[in-house]
Amino acid sequence: MGINFRNRDIITIDDFSRQELEYLIQKAQEMKKLEKSGQRYQLNKTLEGKKLASLFYENSTRTRTSFETAMHELGGTTFGFAGPEGTSLMKKENILATVMMYWANHADAAVMRHSKDGSVQWAADVLGIPVINGGDGKNEHPTQALLDLVTIDELVPGIDGLNIGFGGDLAHGRTIRSNALALSKFNNITIHWAAADELAMPEDLIDTLKKERGVKVKRYDSVEDVFRNSNIYYMTRPQKERIKGLNEAQINDILEKYKIDMHKILSNPNIKILHPMPVDSSTAEIDITVFFSGNQYFIAQAENGVFLRKALLYEILNETDHILFNSSIDEKVAAANDKDYITKSDDPNKKSDINEKPYVGKIDYGVVIDHLEDGITAEIEAKLQFSKRGYRVTSVLHEPSTKTGKLKDFLKIKDKLLTPREIKEIAMISPNATFNIIKDRDVVEKFKYNLCKNENCITRVVNEDVPPKFDKIGKDLRCHYCRKPYEKLCQIIQNLKNS
Amino acid sequence: MGINFRNRDIITIDDFSRQELEYLIQKAQEMKKLEKSGQRYQLNKTLEGKKLASLFYENSTRTRTSFETAMHELGGTTFGFAGPEGTSLMKKENILATVMMYWANHADAAVMRHSKDGSVQWAADVLGIPVINGGDGKNEHPTQALLDLVTIDELVPGIDGLNIGFGGDLAHGRTIRSNALALSKFNNITIHWAAADELAMPEDLIDTLKKERGVKVKRYDSVEDVFRNSNIYYMTRPQKERIKGLNEAQINDILEKYKIDMHKILSNPNIKILHPMPVDSSTAEIDITVFFSGNQYFIAQAENGVFLRKALLYEILNETDHILFNSSIDEKVAAANDKDYITKSDDPNKKSDINEKPYVGKIDYGVVIDHLEDGITAEIEAKLQFSKRGYRVTSVLHEPSTKTGKLKDFLKIKDKLLTPREIKEIAMISPNATFNIIKDRDVVEKFKYNLCKNENCITRVVNEDVPPKFDKIGKDLRCHYCRKPYEKLCQIIQNLKNS
Amino acid sequence: MGINFRNRDIITIDDFSRQELEYLIQKAQEMKKLEKSGQRYQLNKTLEGKKLASLFYENSTRTRTSFETAMHELGGTTFGFAGPEGTSLMKKENILATVMMYWANHADAAVMRHSKDGSVQWAADVLGIPVINGGDGKNEHPTQALLDLVTIDELVPGIDGLNIGFGGDLAHGRTIRSNALALSKFNNITIHWAAADELAMPEDLIDTLKKERGVKVKRYDSVEDVFRNSNIYYMTRPQKERIKGLNEAQINDILEKYKIDMHKILSNPNIKILHPMPVDSSTAEIDITVFFSGNQYFIAQAENGVFLRKALLYEILNETDHILFNSSIDEKVAAANDKDYITKSDDPNKKSDINEKPYVGKIDYGVVIDHLEDGITAEIEAKLQFSKRGYRVTSVLHEPSTKTGKLKDFLKIKDKLLTPREIKEIAMISPNATFNIIKDRDVVEKFKYNLCKNENCITRVVNEDVPPKFDKIGKDLRCHYCRKPYEKLCQIIQNLKNS
Q1: What is the pTM of this model?
Q2: pLDDT tens track for A195-211
Q3: Which of A41, A263, A306 is nearest residue B104 as measured by Cβ atoms?
Q4: CATH dotted code for A142-296
Q5: CA-CA distance, A318 to A45, in Å (whole number)?
Q6: Do C79 and B69 count as a contact with CB atoms less than 8 A apart?
Q7: What's the mean pLDDT in C443-457?
Q8: Do C263 and A417 lie within an 8 Å CB cutoff?
Q9: Is A141 annotated in the active site?
Q10: ipTM above 0.85 for this complex
């Protein structure tokens, strides 16, 4: 078949071909057969001496425990940290140093969960061992999507032609995104859904599914309507910690109409209810009576998580050698395309001019920052404290642009070489800032800073020092870490250049 | 002997016969002999491949660690969670789903500790694998009682005829209850005790011991008097977190007179001091000098915990097959006798009348709740928000009872089917509420809700959705979970019916 | 060679001879060779059945994890607790009882970290199994120093003649102290350093290194100057939690000039940067670009931690028998020289007089405390509440000393035998207090209480009940636990006796 997962990173479900998905589904079901025929430990020599680093910066019980169970049954071990106490332990150490430490302690692979989108891609880039995404921010949770496929495949004659209902909080969970993208690899999929506006499926996901993947997506007013049109209903819990502007009582009110109970199930008594778990017992988005009913398949789904992870770890680590620790970090990890250089040809007149504005003294060495939003200079000083730290700073406020007439700020810092972190912080405050690096009285470098627009992206966490990087995927430029498209900013930059 | 613990739940010490207790004591002492003869790992093939889920919702070091040691020495493993971070991890997931998840991860048995009485019985009902109570609320801690017996049996010629002293906090700890019930299975036991009134032995326990079990229970004014009359003194720490209305300094003051030190020990230099540990080092209910003395047996007692748990796990799990996970929950778990139906014969006139009170409009479908305490209706609305959620609610306040003349409230909710959780919440606010379910303009069901009177019972935690259930034990009706007697409420209900 | 570490405690680096250090360095490098030649698990039968108790009262990831990895690769296991949740779990149980519990659970050795100086020595005294110091307060971190030596030895032709730079926070970390003491065992060592005054090397350490150990210690104004004079630069993070009187922003300001970045490295492009890790990512005392550079050796250093700890555990535990648990605590542990007895010959007149001051009634039994600082009596009552607890207390305030004329307080407590804890608490409030124990109207014992002057010493934590003990080391009297010199107080006492 040519399918090979050895030492492969598992970051996003979207990287998998249909063939690969089917292969993993089959392997998971073989693991299930072993268990159900009483051979739980038949493969327990397979990963002997192999260690999985279990790096959970965010709470997890199910995902973490099932990886642990899977390693154990294959003869391997796990070590690492879990939950907020894990992050408090290490809040001052950046991800790069932390994950390297687990490789230095001879991990053969790592599974990681973190609150920031793209964080697991960063870890995978840093580490020479395979890394599995256990959930990154609002982004992805690929092994959940895989185990969902395993369960769906058990419950229907085949995934092609599936009618599936989605419910609960479709806006904030990473499960829905990963699940929908996984299903989109199959043919003739229809997603039926009903949810409050505040918890509706994101437009960009619907767009991707409909326009690029040929998935039918239909919204309904009531859960009962979705039930009637579906074989399987995939319920999700309100991600209360991620829903902004609503308190718990308000969220519960909004959900009231969309909760699953035995009365709603009357509209389709054959409906099979899935849920990635945990169910939120204060909201009770699934009523307790459903737990005891024949429509409940979410607990079987949880056990399938063990089989899927067992299959995946088997595929990634079986018959591999230990990857010896390498304490120097590959330079390609640090490589970034974070600077959008503006060459003379972009602006043939300006380059030599920036240091010669009549009303600020010319400097030998330092930086001039222009195209700053009007009035933003004070904010930059408050954050970065160049003056307070003793640098000679000249600010020009409310300078009218020669071209647009719009007011802008302008900043000159003498004898200062900006650090990458300082450049990033200025760009986060004023995204259109143009940096002019002055040496020997001349502008030797001129650029705008390319920063991912996704506010939850790992590249925007200053202390992590992840350099922005963008990959060409098809015709899109996408953030290398969170995979959000970048064209919008490029557009802005292009417009600015043209202005 | 016919004694068999295979796959058996260990919930309460009271379930054990004297013969069974003696059997376990002997087995623990055999484990100790193995250790002391240098054969710590002689049985380390016994539980190979067996996993114990260690589910500690409350802090524990000793109990949890000794189960872990015991499994390890028998060749098995443990997994699970510990302490408040464990509960914070899962505070939104109910016990049912959480414990099922550990079975889905192929636990062969579970040990559980939780702050609520009866919680471990609930878990045991849900799970198909054996469950051991590691401490449930103020209720029981059976493996502690068993290891205490192992230690006592070492220190005296035989448990029959034992004179034991109890001290410290006899009111709030589960250890004292389990220990006393265990001793009551032996002959001619005398419990001597001295404690502050606030920390005195509970009257119901003394009653049970004296009247039903033939245990002599004698109170003294001073610890020295108890020492003089005892061979063994069982000290306990103040359960500060469970003592209401007193701050730490006040508790320490109260205990001052009852602390154990070498001076008090002069009154009986042969006294052997036990303590379930931990000793509270800020209170120092046992002075540090006692730790270094020959009267100290509480550290040996801690090691006996390992032997007892090793013996118990051996008895429960040796030569058993894995119990394969079953994702559907046995219906008998959901079965409850939470409704006390009131039939026409109870009240031949009323049944048809309830929907016909002259001053409220007759409804086709919904619920009428009467016998509500005077003025309680507002509290029900505040909690359950029927009006706010859009239901048509009619309240009648301060209605004089036709029989007693007492004022009562009365509530009619149109087009509403109460959920089990709503019924429980109303009954918790107004225990004598009578629910009249209306369909087609007629009362089709009429009942009071049977709720355990023990405020710390798991059935009273709304989000857990544990249905109240009562077992006939002897002539008593007892809560199936916390085992507290229920006759009192039945009496009240009977009185009401007769009123 | 006669070097033998079997069952030996590892408390302070200063206990090792040069020969022993070299032996351990060599053994660690042999472990590294095994790993790098693909034989990670070649020794995995060595510690089969051996358990290491991992008792981390303070946060640790690196140290704890590397001990875990080392045990795992040698075929042993670890158990215990980690981080603040560990201490909160057990905050009420003293160290003595906690560590005994892990031995009762059949630990073969223990590694411990705690916030108090000398705490690990106390645990080692209590336990019959070998104990390794994983960091005690501001005191020592010997295995870090050992792994630093392993790394230094790799990077330079030999440790003799080493020029090493120290930077960052030299005042508050235990790493610098242990590292410098370790290096001082070698010949012709020069330590070059630059740091803010607030974070400067402690004078007492510089004194010891220069005067007693023949180490050259040179301070510079800039990091660049240190770089130019060194082969290796040992950077450390600001111990923000231990720096009093400065907030995080102020600490970052102070460090600004001393941070390591690629520009400073230009002053010596061959400099090899070490750091015990974690780097504080908010301060970024090492810039991210250095992580990717060829000057970075701190990640290799982290892996060396695994090899050092593997070698150390091998040396301590290989071919040893299990040390069976002994539940009685050796009396020598409780032995203390906490009382400085004042005999008649010290003061031939006074001894019989103390109970006969004309203005206080003579007592039959109790205690008289004099030499109390003027006005301190109220503070003692506030803390110890003798009156409130019902004792008859006579205070004499502002009594002029017959010799010095200085005002002092005087306290007589009838029918009270002070507990060791009470004596310690009084001495902590008023260090020169003299205790006169009265029995049968006569002074039967008269003493001052010897309390370690180090405020972070474990002996000063009242609830731990560690009895002060002082060892004669050379001509010094040093605290048995934190090893701080005691002569100063002895001097004071001598002066008082002579006054």
Answers
A1: 0.94
A2: 999 999 999 899 999 99
A3: A306
A4: 3.40.50.1370
A5: 10
A6: yes
A7: 92
A8: yes
A9: yes
A10: yes
